[in-house]
Amino acid sequence: MSFPGRIQERTINTSFEGLGLRAELLRAVAEQGYTQPTPIQLQAIPVILQGRDVLGAAQTGTGKTAGFALPILELLARKPAPRAVRVLILTPTRELAAQVHEDTRTYGRHVNFRSTLVYGGVGMQPQVDALRRGVDILVATPGRLLDHSRQKTVDLSHVEILVLDEADRMLDMGFIHDIRRVLALLPRERQNLLFSATFSDEIRALAGSFLRHPATVEVARRNTPAELVAQVAHAAEREVKRALLAHLVKTGDWQQVLVFCKTKHGANRLAAQLLRDGIEADAIHGNKSQNARTRALKNFKAGELRVLVATDIAARGLDIEELPHVVNYDLPHVPEDYVHRIGRTGRAGASGEAVSLVAAEERPLLAAIERLMGRKVEMRAVEGFDARAVVREPQPRPAQPNPQQRAPHRTQSHKPAPPHHRPQHPKPRTHPQAHAPKQPPQRSNPDAQPQLQVPEPVPGYRPLTAHSMPQKVPALLGGNRQRKH
Ligand code: AMP
What we know:
By secondary structure, this protein is an alpha/beta fold. It is 32% helix and 14% strand. α3 (64-78) packs across α4 (94-107) and α14 (335-342) crosses α15. It is globular.
């Protein structure tokens, strides 16, 4: 990203000492086992300590929470004041709020401050009581915070530092008006920190409206997913997705898989089906009680649940260390969500794999994602699963075969797939364009009459034989339609 005034990544200072944090904070950091600051921490901590506004381009998983929590705790400790809400941290979801709150308490365990958490879906009264006792740091979701403000159970007139965490998600979730209402309740003189994984024009407009000469800190280029994440896609129609997912989990011996579904209902159904397949699974989404969500997350983190099926909103901000597998069971309609989703894996230096199951009607969505990332996602065939069964396409003309037009996977050839399509172990890739196919994508003739190719006893799924093994799957899926919801 080329923001003016961007702060270059430091390469000389690679320790927490010397960043300006007091011994109590350094001790807490050491107790967490952190030996070196992450790049976002190296960049953000000094400028926050200078009192500057910050525009942070960082995904979850980069260590950004410590990047803002540590200097905030330092600033509070440097300037003791009567107990009042001096720091307000706004997050889009309850899970992220809980996570940020917990992290802040961890980093601040040796300094004197009070904090509390305010979010919807649970009773107001315990929050009212905690606020009445007095807090220095308040972590909140916007809606519930405004409820408290209306009931005059929170006083935001002493806020010195505002943090908007995952601001892009807040806008996606329609919180812009709530954010503006909250901003109106704060003192004009304050320090503002805005973090976002992606930078749409709306985010820039929001940032421009209240950040004053912000220092820009960043760890990833604009809209790029974590580079450590290997990305792969499998063509799979809706009817085959569940069997394919169960197959991948079992044969790959995947032990911790976060699966994204479009709808709450779909997430529930998939979790139940996976359970019937003998895979420990649970769903997490907005209709579940906070207790059920917390329990599912705890079990997942503890390794008792192999698969956690989530909607985008519920999964937002989940901090699960070194999550090895993320599956896009449904592709997101907003391409930026893909970036958020795969940011769940490959965190803090660990490599991960993001797998997308792509039905024919989702191909335009994949194309939009690829355009956003400026890279292709490799399509890979899965042995034993034949995407052809439900792919509609024209019949090849047997009389005058034209190799340029013939649908590649109808070719009955024993030749191995070209190297870029051959199944291989995922590995980090910095220049994925190098893996793009050399030839143009092969598409069906749009004028031809669609035909269902192979009737299946189990719709959409049948084992491959040597004769039916797809020779290759076009990597470029075509279609430029970009749907918004
Ligand atoms: P975050 O991006 O704040 O959600 O942090 C992602 C993960 O990185 C969390 O599990 C943190 O505990 C971890 N983390 C944060 N800072 C460091 C660090 N300096 N070294 C190692 N791990 C870290």
